[in-house]
Prior knowledge:
The complex is a heterodimer of chains A (about 160) and B (about 350). Chain A is an alpha+beta fold and about 160 residues long.
Amino acid sequence: MKKIVSLTVNGIAHEVAVEPRRTLLELLREDLGLTGTKKGCGIGDCGACTVLLDGVATFSCLTLAIQADGGTVETAEGLAETGKLNRLQQAFVDHGAIQCGFCTPGMLMTATELLRSTPQPDEHDIRMAISGNLCRCTGYQKIVEAIQAAAKESS
Amino acid sequence: MILPRFDVLVPETVDQACAMLVEHADEGVRLLAGGTDLLVDLRRPIIPYHVPRCDGCTTHPEGKVASTVRCEPSDPLMPAGGPLRAALEDPRHAAPKYLVSLHKLNQLKSIQVLGDGSLKVGALTTIAAIPRSPEIRRSWTALADGAANLGSPLVRNRGTLGGNIANARPAADTAVPAIALDGTLTLQGPSGTRTVAAEDFARGPGLSVMKPDEVLTEVHFPPPLPHAGSAYYKLANRKALEISTVGVAVWLALEKPGGPVKDVRVALGAVGPTPILAESVGEVLAGKTPDEKVLGKAAMAAAGDARPIDDHRGAAWYRVQMVELLTLRLLKTVVERIASHP
Ligand SMILES: Cc1cc2nc3c(=O)[nH]c(=O)nc-3n(C[C@H](O)[C@H](O)[C@H](O)COP(=O)(O)OP(=O)(O)OC[C@H]3O[C@@H](n4cnc5c(N)ncnc54)[C@H](O)[C@@H]3O)c2cc1C
Ligand code: FES
Ligand code: FES
């Protein structure tokens, strides 16, 4: 039997009837059409599905939609401000931190959490923070530089 | 890759959770905390190759090692057809009809230093919250070390202390420090509450003394002693997203800085079917001055207590050597820390 889940996604309140086994990832992508959040491994290994749940970087593939009931979710779609890429997104573009782009939404959400808790992270902080987000293309260096640049700009 | 069909129940109290476990026992029911073990396992039929799992290992009928032999039938703790193994192999376990999700039990999400100086950590405390606690970093350092090195930041944000211990894996990065720090687990069932020493909890890979209708509610650690300290080291191929090849946790108390050993507990991970308390270390160290020679003997004793198997993470002989090396290194670290912060 379906259950009603109420949650706020990128500032908009939603009520969605879901099967109990539905993951937060499936709710976002399939029920709300927010396909910015990617599905990689489905078992916690890659971080492509990272969203912020009540401000905490969360893999949405191992989170049931029911567990997010009453929660506030932020996804990559919510980052742009008034139609313009935000500072972090722009830094990813400017620093060549995006190649195929599959890891990017997850990286952005993880970096968003980091920059909120640690506005001036050093390189080690950044590398530790993104250690659960896999990127098969960039070799990470450009991603680290982009996050550093976004942090500098905001200082 | 969608999950198998199940219903999710959301209790508001531990009593309700126990009642749900009892009510649905015949249909198959499992507790769900962070889901970082359980939801992966429920997907396993579809992705059978998921790596962060130990395939287990063995003890001999007499409780001794058969280090390169696979356990199964000769294992006294879980013989084929025995109650523990049967529980694990029960199809209701692999494909439960109900998950009891504990996410609303906020009362189990706290870290508290009690009036007597002891530490109480609720079972639903996230792994990430543990090393953020200045008290845990200072006085229960090995637990902070274990939590800080578990999985990845995303795993730590979701995974819980209770889930890591209840899952009863030999390499569990908080279970090993919990044993060295003399933790006590509180299990609440429909007919009351009981406590189990951390080292007596696991019974084999994925198997524990917890009854199907019990909930692990908290882990309690004794107050810190003067001139004491602890540390945990996770030896793994990578710094993140890796299960340990060997994990060693050391807790040591001296009579005074540089003085004789008052008490010691060394726990080992990934070198047996469960996390192990290396009991011979106490026999070597008790009452002795912790000089290089004595600590070396203690480390050898720890290596003697290891019961590893060969697997893709490391050979048994290598693991034994690493237990010795890491135990020595950690004992020295703790002795030095006590000297600098008596
Ligand atoms: C990518 C990845 C990497 C990982 N890396 C590591 C690692 O490096 N080290 C490590 O030790 N582990 C690792 N794990 C395993 C896992 O993250 C931890 O064991 C975690 O702490 C489990 O907690 P949980 O709350 O997610 O448990 P869940 O998955 O919710 O539950 C696990 C089991 O415990 C039971 N359970 C949960 N809570 C309770 C309770 N309060 N009372 C009774 N039973 C309960 C459940 O029924 C289930 O059987 C990893 C997992 C993933 C997905
Ligand atoms: S898809 Fe969620 S961690 Fe890989
Ligand atoms: S840009 Fe391709 S995976 Fe990161």
